[in-house]
Specification:
- The complex is a heterodimer.
- By secondary structure, chain A is an alpha+beta fold.
- Chain A starts with 9 loop residues before the first helix and ends with a helix.
- Chain A contains ten helices and 19 strands.
- Chain B is mainly α.
- Chain B is globular.
- The mean pLDDT of chain B is 91.
- The chains are: A alpha+beta, B mainly alpha.
- Chains A and B meet through strand 12, helix 8 and helix 9 of A and helix 4, helix 5 and strand 1 of B.
């Protein structure tokens, strides 16, 4: 930790390309900038739409709205076992072909409810009522419109370009092997969604710094992390990659556990979000989780470019996906994943984590709509991100580089 | 709603009608709609039997939970909400929280 009188910019020294200058407010409030993000970021990046276990068996499918692409992805495991993604849109007159958010299409395929055109599980046009009246229709060339679809560590990624120039492994980049197996044992246990009056980047910014904790979470969980040694929750690990970034959140393990934490510990039910000595080691974790092996560690934030943040802990992770609806409207999708509880004691302890993180996320969210209003006032022209906020700065500059240079 | 209640915890059955709520969001809503006194009464009653309840529930695997223990388990899940209010926040709701009626609950695995 930098002393007040010593070097104040230790992270900028490590990542000199990120710098220390205040940054213009424009990207958070300009409709033109937002349009450029839609074209040059969201249409050129691989985007996570779900997990492979949402479409496990042949014919299983799910639909996910992708607002910045003005489309919905239909992800389906074909009867040949291959996972594919299509625009959920009939090639006749544009209606959705999957009318339910999930299901299995082995029996019925995807019959469009407008005029009955029907597609099979590989997206091929299988049946057209009154086919002889469609002059020159070639069914073999009239399948659902594909998007690229690839999987990394069980996450289903979709790219709006059916043949993207950047393979997914390149896009994942430096971290592609460092999470090996981490996500695979955990299952979805909870999910909710909310729309906010913010620019999508504002929530990602708050997720990759710790300095807000003492204030935004001061009456809630801040004391699990801050303590007297680290009152402003400096983050001991910050890794800035080409597109993505991680930070590690330390726990204050010197604090007396609250009665319930003590109990959770005893029954091995806590996750490392709810710090207990038992769970706060890197043992059994792949190198990407707690990458600097911070000794009293609570969890990491992985900001997976562009629009997902994951809170990776021991025994649980949360995904937060930020789907921009407009320059100042964002849909937030929150999903909790946990190792399946074996005992009721574990199950009860898991509930604590879910309740706690819901309250924490609601505190963050409540702060951010006034932040957006402030940014939109025009009175503030620049944001003086601190050295501790270097991951915000890095995210900002990564978006800006893609908007300006397209890569 | 009680489909039975373990004999040795009969003293807690009085909370079943109010706190043994099946849905996760329902348990949270009940916390914030209660007074702090009501939350504390429930919290104190469970806390005084906590070790015994956990030992009792832990005697079987999650998959083998008897129907007659289900109400007690829901009480324990609601206790997680109550403990946040009593042990951490000091109020039934966080001081500055995003309006929970704006959350659209997609799923909340009941068990």
């Amino acid at each position: 930790m930098a002393a007040a009188t010593g070097v104040n910019y230790e992270w900028a020294a490590r990542y000199p390309e990120v710098g220390t200058k205040p940054l213009p407010v424009t990207p958070y409030i300009s409709p033109e900038y937002f349009e450029a993000e839609r074209q040059r970021v969201f249409r050129r990046c691989w985007l996570i739409v779900g997990r492979v276990d949402e479409a496990e068996k042949p014919g299983d499918f799910f639909v996910r709205d992708m607002p910045p692409l003005d489309t919905s992805a239909l992800v389906v495991r074909g009867d040949d076992g291959k996972l594919r993604a299509f625009h959920n849109m009939c090639k006749h007159r544009g209606n959705q072909v999957a009318a339910t958010p999930r299901g299995n299409a082995c029996e019925a395929g995807f019959p469009c409810l407008f005029h009955g055109w029907t597609y099979d599980t590989q997206g091929r046009l299988a049946y057209v009522p009154d086919e002889q009246f469609f002059v020159g229709l070639d069914r073999s060339r009239t399948g659902l419109m594909p998007m690229a679809c690839e999987v990394w560590e069980g996450f289903v990624f979709v790219h709006s370009d059916p043949a993207p120039s950047q393979p997914l492994t390149d896009f994942i980049g430096e971290i592609r092997t460092t999470y090996d197996g981490y996500f695979s044992t955990m299952k979805r246990v909870s999910g909710y969604q909310f729309d906010m009056n913010i620019n999508w980047k504002v929530f990602i910014d708050v997720s990759v710094e710790g300095c807000h904790a003492a204030y935004v979470h001061g009456n809630n969980i801040a004391r699990q992390f801050t303590g007297t040694e680290n009152p402003f929750l400096h983050l001991p690990s910050k890794r800035l990659y080409k597109l993505h970034r991680t930070v590690s959140i330390p726990a204050d393990l010197s604090r007396e556990p609250r009665p319930l934490e003590g109990l959770s510990h005893k029954y091995n039910a806590a996750t490392s979000y709810t710090p207990t000595q038992a769970k706060n080691t890197a043992e059994g974790l792949p190198p990407g989780v707690n990458p600097d092996r911070v000794p009293s560690w609570a969890f990491d934030i992985l900001s997976l470019f562009p629009n997902m943040v994951m809170l990776t802990a021991k025994g649980t992770y949360i995904t937060m996906t930020f789907w921009p609806l407009s320059v100042n409207r964002t849909r937030v999708d929150v999903v909790f994943y946990m190792d399946p509880a074996k005992t009721l004691g574990e199950r009860v302890g898991q509930e604590y984590t879910i309740a706690m993180m819901r309250d924490v996320i609601r505190e963050d969210a409540d702060t951010l709509e006034p932040v957006q209003r402030g940014l939109e006032s025009g009175a503030l022209t620049e944001i003086p991100f601190s050295d501790e906020e270097i991951a915000c700065r890095h995210f900002y500059l990564t978006v800006d580089r893609m908007v300006k240079n397209g890569k | 709603m009680s489909a039975g209640f373990p004999e040795q915890f009969r003293d807690l059955e009085r909370f079943a009608a109010t706190w043994a709520i099946v849905s996760r969001h329902g348990r949270y809503q009940h916390r914030v709609r209660s007074t702090m006194d009501e939350v504390r009464e429930f919290y104190d009653a469970i806390t005084s039997r906590l070790e015994a309840i956990m030992k009792y529930l832990n005697r079987v695997g999650l998959a083998e939970l008897p129907a007659s223990d289900r109400t007690l388990l829901y009480l324990m899940l609601a206790y997680m909400e109550a403990s946040r209010a009593v042990e951490v926040i000091g109020a039934t709701e966080v001081h500055w929280g995003f309006d929970s009626s704006r959350l659209k609950i997609i799923d909340g695995a009941e068990l």
